[in-house]
Design goal:
With 277 residues, the chain is α/β, with parallel strands linked by helices. It has a seven-stranded mixed β-sheet, with helices on both faces. It has a two-stranded antiparallel ribbon with strand order 8-9. It has a domain of 185 residues: P-loop containing nucleotide triphosphate hydrolases (Rossmann fold), CATH 3.40.50.300. 25% of the residues lie in helices and 17% in strands. The chain is globular, with a radius of gyration of 19 Å. Strand 3 and strand 4 form a beta hairpin. The chain binds guanosine-5'-triphosphate (GTP) and magnesium ion. Guanosine-5'-triphosphate binds next to helix 1.
Amino acid sequence: MTDPDVLQHPHDETRPAGEAPASDASVPAKDALVIRSLTFSGPMATEHGWRPEPQLPEIAFAGRSNVGKSSLLNALVKRKAFARVSRTPGRTREINFFRVNEQFMLVDLPGYGYAKISKDRKAAWKPLIAGYMRNSPYLRGVVQLLDVRHDPTGDDRIMLDFLADLGVPTLLALTKVDKLGRAARAKRITELCIAYGVDEDQVIPFSAHENIGRDELAAALVSLLEAGPWREEPVYVARAEGEADLSAYEESPVFEDDEDHDGAGDATDSDKSGTPA
Ligand SMILES: Nc1nc2c(ncn2[C@@H]2O[C@H](COP(=O)(O)OP(=O)(O)OP(=O)(O)O)[C@@H](O)[C@H]2O)c(=O)[nH]1
Ligand SMILES: [Mg+2]
């Protein structure tokens, strides 16, 4: 048997011409993303700091602290302790790069919006994440995580607006869907799609605890990688000391106003479930 191609499309099948496909019940669905190797390539700590030299397509994962990002990444790569599931939110402050199958990079962005960290540290994610996204020549897509039960916070809105302005292909992963019963879940997902103005096929209901959505997410990532570049790819020039020179691509700051966007005191930022504004 041949080794499955890592970026195998879930619907690709090899069978003799004219032969009917096997019935769904008898053949387990193929995994669209078989992880054969996973290597940590290092952290990017500041906007203009070190990052691994861009060579492979990148998919980045963003979300509020405690949204379930580490759990989602562990489920995605089917490794129990790949990304640490933390009891102390807000710990990861760097962008972490992981090489997958020598084919693409999985980019774990720092969780934002944790209330109990200092204001300085709170604001630090904005230039780091914005700089990374603007200046990464091979960024192919972003998976934005949102807790299915909560309305978007001010930081979530900043992030979503930034992604929309940049124009990067974005998937929404709605996490912790196991916390809602089936009927409430379906209703809530429809509500959120209307609130965000997205089609249901851009949204992936996810639960790391009940293993919901992993295969759909894997297939969606493969599609993003196969779709190729969505913007003209900047030319990356590595400096002698390993620092990127992408000054030609630096635009005006995107996150200008963080005073009003930390989620506090904004009536639309309630963490209680309800229809998002
Ligand atoms: N019910 C439920 N809880 C979850 C799920 N995913 C994560 N959690 C819980 O949510 C908490 C945060 O999970 P993490 O995966 O560490 O979230 P994170 O976004 O990586 O958090 P930080 O990195 O600490 O900001 C943990 O207590 C998890 O057990 C899920 O699918 N369902
Ligand atoms: Mg985490």
